[in-house]
Design a protein that fits this description.
This protein is an alpha+beta fold. The protein is built from four helices and ten strands. About 3% of the residues have low confidence.
Length: 207
């Protein structure tokens, strides 16, 4: 199978270590994708401690690659933030991000967009162009901003995707089991039932 999928890697309500794991897991996934001849890039969440990461995977087998990683991911290792901490097992959630066109009430007519200057880490054109985008969902007042992409058009698409995630989370229900798993994983990651386990600073895959 071919196509493009977007994985939502989230630390849920876990401590900062889980945010660190989310960021490092995105790097591990990118390396694994390239080994399989797939293209992978972080759309958002490139900072050191991202609460969540949006990772786009493109190419033949992208859906199968994503399916093998959806669920709870366990990392075994010593906290890089609190080396004396006794905890050795950290968990993050991975789910398929919803397709904006499949989310009810997310028609373009229901969204207002405002451009603004990109600021801080991740802004590709900081202080040079108004490439960042702020999207407001008129019926609910939900707001999403995007500035990590190079163009205003790409940031507009990313902001709409983030609104789709916020709306699905707000509804608390999903149109499919995969999407329902996403929001459950975001709110409370399932311990002890990891679909993949990594260990050590080099994120070595154990199973």
């Amino acid at each position: 199978m071919s196509g493009t999928v977007i994985l939502h890697i989230t630390a849920g309500k876990g401590p900062q270590e889980c945010a660190w794991v989310a960021g490092r897991l995105a790097r591990a996934f990118i390396a694994e994708a390239r080994e399989q001849g797939l293209e992978a890039e972080v759309l958002e969440g490139a900072d050191a401690l991202p609460p969540s990461v949006l990772l786009q995977v493109t190419g033949p087998g992208a859906q199968a690659f994503a399916a093998a990683r959806v669920g709870t991911i366990q990392w075994i290792g010593t906290s890089t933030l609190r080396p004396s901490h006794k905890r050795r097992n950290w968990f993050v959630g991975v789910a398929l991000a919803p397709q904006p066109d499949s989310v009810p009430d997310l028609a373009e007519a229901a969204i207002t967009y405002q451009t603004m200057r990109a600021r801080g880490p991740g802004g590709q054109h900081v202080n040079t162009t108004d490439s960042a985008v702020r999207a407001v969902h008129i019926p609910t007042g939900l707001v999403a901003t995007a500035q990590e992409q190079r163009s205003q058009h790409a940031n507009r698409k990313l902001a709409r995707l983030k609104l789709a995630i916020l709306l699905a989370e707000r509804r608390g229900e999903a149109a499919s089991d995969a999407r329902r798993a996403q929001w459950e994983a975001h709110q409370a990651l399932e311990r002890g039932n990891a679909v993949r386990v990594y260990a050590g600073a080099d994120f070595r895959l154990k199973r």
